[in-house]
Amino acid sequence: IEASGGLLALKKITSRVSRGTVELTSLGLTGTVEFFEQAPNRSSEIINAPGIGVMQRTFDGTRGWLQDPLQGFIRFTGMGLEIVKDEAAFNKQARLKELYPAPVLMGKEKLGANEVYVVRMGFEKWYFAVEGGLLLRRGNTYYEDYREVDGLKLPFKSREEVFAGSGIVYQLTEIKHNVK
Q1: What pTM was estimated for this model as a whole?
Q2: What are the pLDDT digits (tens) for 69-81?
Q3: CA 110, CA 114: separation in Å to the nearest integer?
């Protein structure tokens, strides 16, 4: 919480709009991405990839779905819905005790050049830098290029490794808070 900017700064933020670029490494495609997030658990991710089209993944607080030009409309149910709901939780740093009431410290490891604490929370392992406390990895997503926005330190780059080095790389160019 402190590494991210503190509880007071986190609680002042009720919505976030982020924009940038996305690279779909397995397909060799780049495009644009927009994230719309609102407390307590609403989110929408819109990717526009030339040659494929627009993909949208949304959780509206109750229902989750994916609109994909290749697969069509997919409504999430069961475990898929639970995962999308977990991903949509806004300002997780300020709500860790509520969202993950039974964290388990698994020890210290090396992550690249960084020493990290590994904590199991929910479905995943989270990796926090020993020096500074920032989240460097969650599951198969790596966080980099932290910058300060409205008193919060936020990653402007994230890499989701899906399979054997392929995945998705997000590079944000702007983050705005408390946007209607």
Answers
A1: 0.89
A2: 988 999 999 999 9
A3: 6
Residue 102 CB neighbours (<10 A): 7
d(CA 124, CA 127): 10
* Pairwise CA distance, residues 20 & 173, whole Å: 5
Phi/psi for 32 (5° steps) reads: -110, 160
Name the residue among 112, 119, 63 with its Cα closest to residue 88.
63
CA distances from 86 to 42, 79, 108 (A): 10, 10, 25
In whole angstroms, what is the distance from residue 152 CA to residue 76 CA?
Answer: 32
> Which of 108, 104, 144 minimizes the C-alpha distance to 124?
104
